[in-house]
Amino acid sequence: MIAKHSAPMLLSIPNVRNEMGSLGVIEFKSLIDFEVKRTYFIHSIPEGSERGSHAHKALWQLMFAPSGAFKICLDDGVSFYEFKLENASQALLIPPGYWRTLRDFSSHAVCVVLASDVYDESDYIRNYDEFLKWRSS
Ligand code: TYD
Fold first, then answer.
1. Domain-located, residue 24
2. Cβ 112 vs Cβ 41: under 8 Å
3. How many A from CA of 20 to the centre of ligand 1?
């Protein structure tokens, strides 16, 4: 496992392309070093929506946009990062401990998330001041 509080990172998703289309592969160990216990996806997103506005204490996530595009802002309380996911060849690795906001969704955008654990509300921090306190503790 990459050390806690490591930086977010864009990873290249290997795609096998031929005349019949493209096949993207995300494999344990060769691309990500956490085992995926949950996959969820966000779709049918109304124009102007903002999602996220929370951080995770222990969860690792890999996020990508197989369709459409959106922006992800990450904040560790000191540094700010902005990424745009807009194709099936790039994924964003989000370590634990980042406040995230997802916005500027294009029409037909789909956000797929591979997560290191099952859903657990107690892993969320949904208040920004609490997040800053947690980060600095
Ligand atoms: P949330 O993680 O807050 O989504 P977003 O950051 O995109 O706004 O989750 C939205 C709702 O969905 C919340 O009520 C919790 C629920 N949910 C689950 O039941 N299971 C899951 O795996 C996830 C990610 C969310």
1. no
2. yes
3. 35
The parent domain of residue 130 ranges over: 31-136
Total domains, the chain: 1
We report the CATH number of the domain holding residue 76 as 2.60.120.10
Q: What is the pLDDT of residues 53-110, one digit of tens each?
A: 999 999 999 999 999 999 999 999 999 999 999 999 999 999 999 999 999 999 999 9
Does the annotation count 5 as an active-site position? no
Q: Is the pLDDT of residue 4 over 90?
A: no
CB atoms within 10 A of CB 128: 14
Using the Cα atoms of residue 118, residue 121, residue 126 and residue 127 in order, give the sign of their dihedral: negative
Distance 41 CA to ligand 1 centre (A): 10
48 is a domain residue: yes
Measuring from atom 1 of ligand 1, which residue has the nearest CA?
A: 52
Ligand 1 neighbour 80 (Cβ under 6 A)? no
Distance from the CA of 45 to the center of ligand 1, in angstroms?
14
